[in-house]
Model the fold of this input.
Amino acid sequence: MGSVKDYFSSLGSGIASLLKGMQITGKEFITPKITEKYPENRETVKVPERFRAILTLKYDDEGRHKCIACGICQRNCPNGTITITSKMVDTPDGKKKRKLDKYIYDLGSCTFCQLCVTTCPQDALDFSNDFEQAVFTREKLVKQLNYLPEKEDPAPSPEELARMAAEKEAKIAAAKAAAAAKKAAAAAAGDATQVTPENKEN
Ligand code: SF4
Ligand code: SF4
Done:
């Protein structure tokens, strides 16, 4: 008899415990959230401007970046996070110019020290505060920062072409004049040191 009584007593306390738990859970369902707002507030969340989430190349309104592929940021990075490859291209005035080919950045090894940004002579780099950078594999953390199609430099105007040609001619003329002057000076120095019967008597 006693065991039947214990059975129903346990059953009653189990049901009471269950109801109490459900009451707490139900209350939490309708209580406004205090600490955990993300990701519901993704659209309105304010991340400080100076928060460093990922390195980016600055692009102007026409989609051009300012990187000249000098490699200073790569050399200054303490972690080998940046790998730059460059290429040589022909310019309209017939010269060769180094241009950026690929700017590879490994977010997984970046310590956000910002040395690359502060030492860039072109002010070409910045940190974005876009904090949603989670991915499923480490490979996806390696990103190419010059992701936009390379824009061609604007073609020089006829006036600019004429000016570049004139500058080139002037440089050639100046080099020729300097070489002639050097040659004449060397010849004069040779004459002065030559031993002649006249300067031998003196
Ligand atoms: S980002 Fe700046 S420092 Fe780095 S290669 Fe380009 S110009 Fe040079
Ligand atoms: S922030 Fe520091 S660690 Fe990250 S890429 Fe720049 S120099 Fe390297």
The two ends are 149 Å apart (CA to CA). Residues 81 and 154 are 32 Å apart (CA to CA). Strands lie at 54-57, 82-90, 96-106, 125-128, 142-144.
